[in-house]
Specification:
12% of the residues lie in helices and 44% in strands. The protein has 100 residues and is mainly beta. A hairpin with a 3-residue loop joins β3 and β4. It is built from two helices and five strands.
Length: 100
């Protein structure tokens, strides 16, 4: 399956609906280039996610640090509207080819 035909990229392009959790979080892609190993997304959380000041506007950035044949090492961060990093994460993911 080519990268552009993957359901993830179809959701980015609007060909498929985004997952319900992404809608709930106010998920808005900012940068997504197939093959670049980078993805930036903005979250505009609803009132249920607000802090005591009544707001939450986050930008998430994820990167593929290394991708092998069946394992990928990932990292990401969340920044506030001022660009201050408020959370970081790393992950190891198993790559599974989807059946067509």
């Amino acid at each position: 399956m080519s990268e552009q035909k993957h359901p993830f990229w179809k959701a980015i392009s609007g060909e498929l609906p985004v997952p319900p959790a992404a809608r709930l979080l106010g998920w808005k892609p900012l940068e997504a280039v197939p093959g670049s190993g980078r993805f930036r997304v903005q979250f505009d959380g609803s009132e249920q996610f607000t802090n005591p000041q009544g707001n939450i506007v986050l930008i998430g950035e994820g990167r593929v640090v290394h991708r092998g044949g069946s394992i990928a090492f990932l990292e990401g961060n969340l920044s506030n509207s001022s660009g201050e990093v408020v959370a970081t994460a790393t992950s190891t993911a198993r790559i599974v080819r989807m059946q067509q």
